[in-house]
Amino acid sequence: MHQSEILTHLGEERDKYFQAVSPPVIQTSNFCFRDLTNFRSAFRNELENHIYSRGNNPTVQILRSKLAALEGTEDALVFSSGSGAIAAAVIAQVQAGDHIVCVEGPYSWTHALLTQFLARFGVTHTFVDGRDISAIENAIQANTKVLYLESPSSLTFNLQDLAACAKLAQKHGLVSLIDNSFASPIFQQPAKLGIDLVLHSGTKYLNGHSDVVCGVVCGSKEKIFQIFNSEQMTLGSILPPHDAAMVIRGLRTLPLRMERVAESALIVARYLEAHSKVEQVIHPMLPAFPQYELARKQMSGAGGLFSVYFKAENLEKMETFIHSLKRFLIAVSWGGHESLIMPVAGFYGIEGREDSELPWNLVRFSIGLEDPNWLIEDIEQALAKL
Question: Cis peptide before 152, with omega less than 30 degrees from 0?
Fold first, then answer.
């Protein structure tokens, strides 16, 4: 199915709602039945029928169909946050005594899920360098059930060879999962490379307007029903219909936004790469990136994120540079219309975070929809103070 068909028509049965161009927000908690025959029929499959909005809602269902089609999977579920989606998808695959192999340096709440939450219930884990397929295989144990990937990762942008990882998971009978938030389905479709479950923080590029918190799981009908029927229905981490409508709105412009931020980010990254006060720029689509060939092989673009190591004499100088930027907001998320920075220096001076493994001269940039040359002007004046 063509991307344009997915974004503008798929799932939108306009005959049912007065030919409205935008689907209605079905803001109801409950659905009623004409008779017991319909009641019984609905309860035979709560995922496909409208009973209670914790399970299935018409507005949410339109969003699910679009997301599954974008990722090339059979079905999808949406959650009230990315961490909710990740937790439900991972928990659904394990029980006490099982083991998980996960790439090093995952999203902080994925790390917490493995090291704090699941550890309480006897699920163990091993973190590995995902760039090395042999390291992944060596970490697999007899009780391993899950291979968790994040490619590219959201700060250092390490990649995993997804096709090779999928084959490895199949060989050992593991369920493979990937956080695909960085690339979005516009630039990377892991399911087509054999990955079982594709996860997103829909808060980021999918919504794209910094006004909804959302999580996504895409996969086969079998695996999606498994997660729905247990973890989602039990824990209730659902996306409200109004939020679903806002994400549908965001999807309308997803290809255009991704094209713009990818182009602008490369312009800014190349400028910084050539600057004398920059030590290193980490961007998967720069030829200097160590995994550049793999990036080109499995992604068609890289979104608006990249990281920079600056040449700063001390933390105070680094803070001066950060505070001199006027056209970038300081924030931890990304994927909206606005350009942001997340400076590692911000985690220094917080009790319990002084031993951060990342250096204070590292800054992650998220380039938004602004004119890249306008952003470069701001960086230039700030670098003059570095």
Answer: yes
Note the pTM of the prediction, 2 decimals.
0.94
pLDDT of residue 349: 79
Q: Which domains does the chain have, with CATH numbers?
A: 3-252 (3.40.640.10), 254-383 (3.90.1150.10)
57 closest CA partner among 85, 80, 17, 29: 29
pLDDT, tens digit, 9 for 90 and up, residues 121-142? 999 999 999 999 999 999 999 9
240 contacts 224 by C-beta, under 8 angstroms: no
Among 110, 107, 170, 115, residue whose Cα is nearest residue 137: 170
β-sheet bridge partners, residue 175: 146
2 burial level (CB within 10 Å; 0-12, 13-18, 19+) = exposed
Count other C-beta atoms under 10 Å from residue 61's C-beta: 19
Q: Which residue has the tokens 């697999």?
A: 140
Length of the chain as a residue count? 386
Identify the H or E element spanning 146.
strand 144-150
Tokens 């025959």, residue located: 37
